[in-house]
Amino acid sequence: MSGPHAPVLLDEVIEALAPKTGDVVIDATFGAGGYTRAILATGANVIALDRDPTVQKHADAVANDYPGQFQLIRTPFSGLSDAFAETGAAKLDGAVFDIGVSSMQLDEAERGFSFMRDGPLDMRMAGEGESAADIVNTWDHGPLAHILKLYGEERQSGRIATAILRRRAEQPFTRTLDLADVVEKALGGRRGAPTHPATRTFQALRIAVNDELGELTAGLEAAERTLAPGGRLAVVTFHSLEDRIVKAFLTERSGNAPGGSRHAPVAVETRKPSFTLQFKGAREAGEAELAANPRSRSAKLRAAVRTDAPVWRAAA
Q1: Is there a single domain that holds both residue 187 and residue 50?
Q2: Is there a binding annotation on residue 275?
Q3: Among 179, 210, 241, which residue terminates a domain?
Q4: Are 124 and 189 contained in the same domain?
Q5: 107 known ligand binder
Q6: Is 211 among the annotated ligand-binding positions?
Q7: Domain for residue 315, yes or no?
């Protein structure tokens, strides 16, 4: 499958899920339906989740091609367990997550995700709640600089926050290119940088607007609660912040987390692993996929199989 919305690491994801006729698999990030179609082609049934209302046209096309095998439920990751219960299916055999903003969303200027296309400064995947414009126009310097540093890993977060507050005192931000221009000037221009100076700022705002990291953690915990013993989990990430969360979750739940030091020993762990890793580390795209789809460059796949052990208590 090719094109701007081609699913990344598709062959590796299908291998990790190993779907077969009669299985029930959740595609927690439906998007344009790339993973879903590949899963359905094996004879498995798919429950697709997505909080973005614009994906409905893709869902309608899939439902037409695979009648009786597919349904879409409008919900974020955190609603995975409730969505599965709503379907009345007996057991969940697999779940796949493709984390981050899709090329489909970036290509639509009116969604406000891209600093390369002029559009309203929005970034809301579900079209609800606080927008990026709300954040840059109302948040105080400290909280704004904090999310730029935390979610964007932006070293000059304080300088950018100062520039935003100075400009919004004259005129509020409403457009993507306007914000991108202010950030670029605050950082002294491009100076031959390979990436746009506003890249990290836009990433941070998008993550904050959609609570992406919180939703990822909630989604992983929901998958742990919902997958049947032997059920398979596959997660594709595109950024170190996301991959760090997935790696830590699976490392802990598979019983491979490091113990305490001799100076501060940890309590003896009595919980049994709720997952077993399918392979060590993360899998990345091969040369052929890298050449065909540049988006796969930063993609990492981690996968695990649910054991019959009880669910671990979520972190406080």
Answers
A1: no
A2: no
A3: 210
A4: yes
A5: no
A6: no
A7: no
The domain that holds 188 is classified in CATH as: 1.10.150.170
Residue 249 among known ligand-binding residues: no
**Is the residue at 79 inside a domain?**
yes
Domain assignment of residue 25, given as a range:
10-104+212-306
27 among annotated binding-site residues: no
- SS3 for the chain is CCCCCCCCCHHHHHHHHCCCCCCEEEECCCCCCHHHHHHHCCCCEEEEECCCHHHHHHHHHHHHHCCCCEEEECCCHHHHHHHHHHHCCCCEEEEEEECCCCHHHHHCHHHCCCCCCCCECCCCCCCCCCCHHHHHHHCCHHHHHHHHHHHHCCCCHHHHHHHHHHHHCCCCCCEHHHHHHHHHHHCCCCCCCCCCCCHHHHHHHHHHHHCHHHHHHHHHHHHHHHEEEEEEEEEEECCHHHHHHHHHHHHHHCCCCCCCCCCCCCCCCCCCCCEEECCCCCECCCHHHHHHCHHHHHCEEEEEEECCCCCCCCCC
43 labeled binding residue: no
User: What does pTM read for this prediction?
Assistant: 0.88
For the ranges 84-88, 214-218, 294-298, which has the lowest average pLDDT? 294-298
Residue 167 is encoded by which pair of tokens? Answer: 């400009």
Count of domains forming the chain: 2
- Asked, for residue 314, whether it belongs to a domain, the answer is no
Q: What is the pLDDT of residues 14-41, one digit of tens each?
A: 999 999 999 999 999 998 899 999 999 9
Q: Residue 169: pLDDT band by 50, 70, 90 thresholds?
A: very high
Let me know: does 295 contact 216? Beta carbons within 8 Å.
Answer: no
